[in-house]
Amino acid sequence: MNPERELAFAALREFPVEVRRVTRAAESFNTVYRVEAAEGTFALRVGPVLRIHAEGTARAEAAWQRALVADGLAVPDVVLASSGEPMVVVNDADGRPRTCVLFTWIRGRSLRTRLGPARARMLGQLMARLHTFVLRDADVLRADKVLYWLLPDRLGDVPTHGKALSEARNSVQALIDELWTDRTPQLIHGDLTPANVIEAPGLGPVPIDFQDLVLGFPEQDISITLAAFGRRDDRTAMTEAFRDGYSTIRSWPDISDTMMSGLIVARGLHQLNLSLATATGPLPQDYLDYHGTRAQAWLAR
Q: Would you say the C-alpha torsion 213, 53, 272, 185 has a positive or negative sign?
């Protein structure tokens, strides 16, 4: 058996489910398996060797999702292991620990497959609902830095663009410092992009993949979603629709265009640094040029 599948089966033995079939469903930073069991269908998330999140993230993720489920919001529930813990840690073939979490499976289609202004509006409403459920005490990372994952800063290593990227990081860090002054952060999803929302029959849009949750502010969560619209030709219409949807549930944050633009730049730098730190080979030059050009445009504003 493939070592990764062996790892998945080893993890599943720690949960109170009678497994019938396991198939790989997705692979990016984590590997996700669809698990068909006597008790239903589940999603097993197998974490990578590299840890970029705080030690308490899985517990915080489980606590927030279970609280949202109890409050009536459609989100995947976390299945507790037989030990009562929300995750299990199993060693891979090389003896390296891997954190695994089991969720209920959400049947449906990714929101990004038919994304347009109407679904951007739905996404705005969904984010606003999450923001009304305020939790402030969690052992997770704080998004008070441009680069808040547990990774080295590699922005300066990018050929041609390193200086601009580093200067842009410093510039938007000043805005983040301002945003965080004399305020108390709350848990935010941290990656509520269309790729992390499922349109589920009978349930509507369902948020998934809470692993990137951090302590931050709604403005930062919003900027992460708006950054996901960045390369679309209709990004202005998408942003307006998202804001309109959000505002039907709760008030849009009182934030300047400069602050929001800076937070969007910060998100791009954050994701670029993640790619630089985790890539197994050179990143595409057009990807580096895109971020370099954006950094230069921000500095020249």
A: positive
